[in-house]
Design brief:
A hairpin with a 5-residue loop joins strand 18 and strand 19. The protein is of the alpha+beta class and 601 residues long. The strands form 7 sheets. Strands 2, 3, 4, 5, 10, 18 and 19 form a 7-stranded mixed beta sheet that branches. 41% of the residues are buried. It contains 20 helices and 23 strands. Helices cover 39% and strands 22% of the residues. Helix 9 runs antiparallel to helix 20 (574-589), helix 13 (325-335) crosses helix 15 and helix 15 packs across helix 17.
Length: 601
Amino acid sequence: MQNKLYFVFIVICVLFVGLIGRLMYIEYTSGDKYEKIVLSQQQYDSQTIPFQRGDIMDAKGTVLATCVDVYNVILDCKVLNANEKKIDSTVGYLKQCFPEIDSDNVYKQLKENKNSQYVVLAKKVSYDEMQSFQSIMDDEKKGEEIAGIWFEKEYVRKYPYNSLGAAVIGFANSTEGVIGLENQYNDVLNGTNGRSYGYYNADSNVEKTVIEPENGNSLVTTLDANIQTVVEEAILKANQEMAAETGQTLGSDDTAVVVMNPKNGEVLAMAHYPGFDLNNPKDLSAYYTEDQIKAMSEDDKSNILNNIWQNYSVTKTFEPGSTFKPFTVAMGLDSGTLKGDETFFCDGYQMVGGWPIGCVKRDGHGEEDIRWALANSCNDALMQMAAIIGPVNFSKFMSVFGFGQKTGIDLPGEASTASLIYNEKELEEREANLATNSFGQNFNVTMVQLASAFCSLVNGGDMYQPHMVKRIVDSSGDTVKEISPVVMKRTVSKEVSDMLRDYMLTVVDEGSGKKAAVEGYQIGGKTGTAQKLPRSENNYVVSFIGFAPYDDPEVVVYVAIDTPHVEAQDHCSYSSYIAKDIFTQILPYLNVKGIPVTSQE
């Protein structure tokens, strides 16, 4: 008997060793396969935890773009079907909290997708709606009547001020910036999704691992929301008045304004009309009637939206007109070809290459020096100056001022003007090119290009790279990157800058820019009226660029109205009125000093 027991024991040990060996072999050769089979039979749970896209703020911390959390209502058919007694009560509570959920659809999903663990019942419900259902699930008694419902968190982009700074800020679809800063800084604003994964074991205990998401960084821009508001209201007011003059829907094809700090290249405001609502960027109801919109083809709508979404100050090119005249004067003074004491005689036109090119005043201004040539916006005198400056110097300074070059502003879609200006050879070969260029016709610029160059004319000669973002911060508000002002080049001497400021003060005090004057402040500037191609259609870009205060400029305002809808475009003064409106409001806000008042006894 004892021998038999020994034998049985040995056989059992051999079988155990064989079994262990077999298990080890199976684990080594097919472990992954059987692990997947086991996991597939369990209630596996894996969810993406979305990152939060960074905010876009103005220079003072006002939030211009942010994310708010929304929730998708998810039905786990497998779990709810396993708790059959809870189906009716769960459907009832869903209908109570989410009116948009169709009860019949829930029953249909439970029947047709019995084992599905992911059926979306409602998308992007608000936090309050989600919380109302969550409170029922958390209730000790009512929660027992619910099964198979969970929430998937998402973020949607919201713009608290709707249309404010629309073309600059841009908008984002989900996590992809479409235009503006949302597009330019897309990678900075985006983060990395996290994940929650694990499984429910036989005892319904959750075995879970969570990898937290990394939220995107935020942008602190150079914009000032208060100045941006002033600018947009001034633009809208002027366009409403222009539209009323002719009974048209829009006041102009385009109106744009750039406000810059000439001491560092920061853009304080950048606006474009017509604008749009960032929270509903495809809505055209602000500018067209319902019948007009219905009559539009999809291509028509697309073209209109693309035009509205473009940032005119950066993406559009145009002939600058007389706002360029200070640059011609600067070329002469800085090159030494003009001394500053010259006089010119204007008889109303200048013969160039055998052809008369007219002045704004057809019967002539008579004799005038450089100051009054600018103040009167005299084409004849400017053509005479350009002839003295010569093609070599003119072409050289066009490059010095950055015309024909991109500024490198941190916004998408900056237009190139490289092929839209004349080189030295082309200026030499045809006299009319040099003559017309002298007063801002026959070549193209962008607003941001001219504004940046103009800042250097009035700040002592330093040309700063224009920029929209001054700081990048993380989700805790700590600075990730500080963006310092960049001086790209030196354009003119301080002496020339001083002279030009003095000349342009006369333009506003006594010359063509008087309608932009603001009582109590010394403002310098220059008006512009450029005839568009084709010339026969008599459409114009009217503009004004100015600075304040005269002796130490702290702000530059550039206004351009492309094709104002008024009877006589070439006599349109709305650009000066817009500039005056803006200066009147922002100079006190910026604590810009006014003209000293002396007491009289």
